[in-house]
Amino acid sequence: MHQAGGAEDNDDMSSLKLIESLGLLVSLIACSPALDWRSVRIDDMALQASLPCKPDRANRKVSWAGHSVDMSLVGCEARGAMWTISSLALPADMSVGEGLAQWRQITLAHLRSETGAATQPFAPPGALEVPQSARLHVRGQPPDGGAALEVDLAWFARASSAGTFLYQTAIYAPSRDADGVETLLAGLHFE
Predict the structure, then answer these.
(1) HSE on the CB side for 58, CA within 13 Å?
(2) 0.85 exceeded by pTM
(3) Of 1, 109, 155, 158, whose CB count within 10 A is highest?
(4) Given this structure, which CATH class describes domain 38-190?
């Protein structure tokens, strides 16, 4: 009888140790950051950003507001969301305000979202201060007709001896991560 109790005690101890180990594992997971934020240099204009994942980079020529322009894109996917920062040189026949307004209109049309959505002023340190430098949150539809997305966007510009460049940050997600949005936008700055 004592041996049976001993085996039962060993099973209870094993179960207790397993529960303790699982509890420790759960607490470690709960304490670990959900996103792996890192500082990233975006371009030659010295834009720095904090992104929650290791970014990929792409460059391509696109038709934009009646011009053929070179667009650079830095982006990554984390926690089911796409985090992107795009840039392009301002066409010579456009003002900064016109360029930013055009980009906003093109993006919102692409997302099939309201072009009259309310914006908030936004200009990271070192960016030009113009009224069209703004941020907003919209609900959009991807071009492929997939599920609706929560999209946070910001547009801003920077002038230098190399020319004027326009920027767009975008976070496309099935549900909004307000803290992540604020971390990304707060991390934007020009050196």
Answers:
(1) 10
(2) no
(3) 155
(4) alpha beta
